[in-house]
């Protein structure tokens, strides 16, 4: 080829290449304009022409409630509902990997759907046919509302544009009524209604996400229009409870409440060193899986909402006050008979008639003498006793902060009156809750340091963030010597008192004190022969590790606090077994009940 011809060929090739480059560049600019610069405008125009926008909620999962060992007490499961858009149900055109077109008929799709959900293809077709018969423009017909995650995945894999899905949250309580009064429950709409489900909703509540997209007139999602905002699951709420111990205590207190023909019963177990509540069981109780099966009054927790005069259990607080003030020792004595009138006009009586005894402080607690405690109480001013009662927690809610928890009530000394001046020494003329009494004994058993009671251990969010409840700082209430001496007095009550055989636990030294509170008749007086009874134990007395308290409301088989003794013995026995508490190695010499 001549050189001139070759130059001409190269020139033509260059011109053609330049033209092609200009065309490609033009397409590229237009593509950027469509997909980037004016993408939303084009999508909006397309949607206006061939479809509309849709939004779907993506539900997060409500967090679980677990016990101290991680045992699940409440959890959420997700099921799915599936709905047809009947007006858009039709045969679906597909293209396989080799580019060949093929059709999946509605009859074939119905058969596939039926195989997944456990129905025949004809039954599935009938759902759509019935909906269209009722409304030719129907866009809703329910296929199922209880699909498992596996069924949901198999159905979505079919890629049917006329089938949509919505998650349905379901709350389950695998331990049933165990801790039901504390855990609470949720409504049919998933809203928390009681207990820690409501109180700790900030921890447990999930944050929903969303899926938005535009759908063409053929029912298919327009590619590139999907926008997903991921849901955030709720956190895990860990409680201090021991599910196994809680289960035992609920069975036991139900049995004892019925044995004693009482209206209600409760038992609490608290760890001395930490203030952690290991069990808080009561009867009647509620199963959160079916809360409407019981009366509304039984769906909460009487442990926290019921107030009562603690009675003789608070004689230990009077003794600790005297010991801490240096006003008495275990051997200090007063002379007290079974019934006495005091100079200010007050009249005080013991639960049994007796002649004048020269009681030691130890003996006053052993016989639970109201008269003797009244005289011991006068060894310190009323203002001092009032301050100690407050420091022990009377009149203030515990750190547990359970919904509906009451603070109790105590008046200042200038409002005590003649009778209250003495009654406050033996646990009357003020009210407490069960946790307040337990906290007072936890203080005595913990060398005089009051640890805040708590049931919530922590909240762990899905990202691993752990938050702890805000609790009061531990507080010294009485000296270590005063606290330890008071526990020794309580041990003498357990070994020398009238209930000694009924509360004894082989191999263990324990300290106990009973309480029998009169109940208001609602008309300014008290119910005749009916009481709110209680008993509290410290175990082991030589190395206090647990506080156990039992209450019975209006027992009628045995009306006094003796009704609670069998329950305490069973509860303490289970606690030392459950936590493998070592038996006591030796016993202390008994303290004298009377002065020589």
Walk me through what this model shows.
With 596 residues, the protein is of the alpha+beta class. The chain has two domains: 54-239, Penicillin-binding protein 2a (Domain 2) (Alpha-Beta Complex); 243-578, DD-peptidase/beta-lactamase superfamily (Beta-lactamase, 3-Layer(aba) Sandwich). The protein is built from 19 helices and 23 strands. Strands 2, 3, 6, 7, 10, 18 and 19 form a seven-stranded mixed sheet that branches. Strands 12-11-23-22-21 form a five-stranded antiparallel sheet, sandwiched between helices. Strand 21 (511-520) and strand 22 form a beta hairpin. The chain is elongated.
First-last Cα distance: 143 Å
Number of strands: 23
Do you know the CATH topology of the largest domain?
A: Beta-lactamase
Name of the CATH superfamily of the largest domain: DD-peptidase/beta-lactamase superfamily
Strand content: 15-25%
Number of domains: 2
Find the structural class using helix and strand composition: alpha+beta
Domain Penicillin-binding protein dimerisation: 59-191
GO cellular component, one term: plasma membrane
Protein name: Penicillin-binding protein 2
Family: Belongs to the transpeptidase family.
